[in-house]
Design goal:
Blueprint lengths: L6 E5 L5 H11 L3 E6 L2 H10 L3 E5 L5 H15 L4 E4 L14 H29 L3 E6 L14 H18 L5 E7 L2 E2 L2 H6 L8 E2 L1 H12 L9 E4 L7
Parallel strand pairs: 1-2, 1-4, 2-3, 4-5, 5-6, 6-9, 7-8
Helix pairs in contact: 1-7, 3-4, 4-5
Length: 235
């Protein structure tokens, strides 16, 4: 599908950061390819947000995910911006984490980013421009007893992103990792923290605005590791 608008890919669209990024980029003049494993979710967002094209993919299916990204390139061209927002988590102590879920989380959170870079990175480098922004959280910076099924995969994702940044940066492709240290303002977060006031939550639209800014930083002042949190968050 041809478009005069620049092309952005949002990997992992949901009701929080993914949808907010999609809306922000569309409002800024982009056409956005949106990816989710849920066809129902894709249909909903594609109907709600103009200038979006849906692509179904499950990052735990590495070959299927690669094929979906290659299809995006074939149909819509090389993106100028990629927001890698997909994640998979399993919570519990080390005795309780099934190995198959642990390995699945690595496929989604870490291998998925590698495949994203393998499909888009070299093409962006050939163009001499582009940005890949990866969304993370404090699990990427520290391990906790009940985060065994998640934190190692996010920490590996952060290190992979740093390796990509060092490789692709000199070729004109900006890779950044955004640590979102916050409860994001979504219905399930509100339900589970009903005792918290509004200031406790990070607003998806505000996160999207900062992610857009990071993706468009001037070359003389690129960020790699960026932390975003509400002003009242303890850290």
């Amino acid at each position: 599908m041809a478009s005069d608008r620049p092309h952005c890919v949002v990997i992992g669209i949901g009701p929080g950061t993914g949808a907010a990024c999609t809306r922000h980029f569309v409002d800024a003049g982009y056409s956005v390819s949106i990816i989710s494993r849920s066809e129902e979710r894709l249909a909903q967002f594609a109907a709600e947000i103009p200038h979006t094209v849906p692509y179904q993919a499950d990052l735990s299916d590495t070959q299927g995910y690669r094929a979906a990204l290659e299809r995006i390139v074939a149909e819509r061209g090389v993106p100028k911006v990629v927001i890698h927002n997909a994640t998979q988590a399993t919570f519990g102590r080390y005795e309780d984490i099934p190995v198959e879920k642990f390995e699945r989380n690595f496929r989604v959170n870490t291998t998925g980013l590698l495949v994203t870079a393998q499909v888009f990175g070299a093409l962006m480098a050939q163009a001499g421009e582009g940005a890949i922004v990866v969304t993370g959280n404090t699990a990427a910076l520290r391990g906790k007893a009940d985060y065994v099924g998640w934190a190692p995969t996010k920490a590996a994702q952060r290190i992979l992103a740093e390796s990509l940044a060092r490789d692709l940066g000199p070729k004109g492709v900006h890779v950044a990792y955004v640590v979102i240290d916050a409860a994001i303002d979504m219905p399930f977060a509100r339900r589970s923290r009903s005792d918290r006031d509004d200031d406790f939550f990070a607003k998806p639209a505000d996160l999207a605005s900062e992610i857009f800014h990071i993706a468009h930083q001037p070359r003389s002042a690129w960020s790699f590791l960026v932390e975003l949190r509400p002003f009242g968050e303890t850290w």
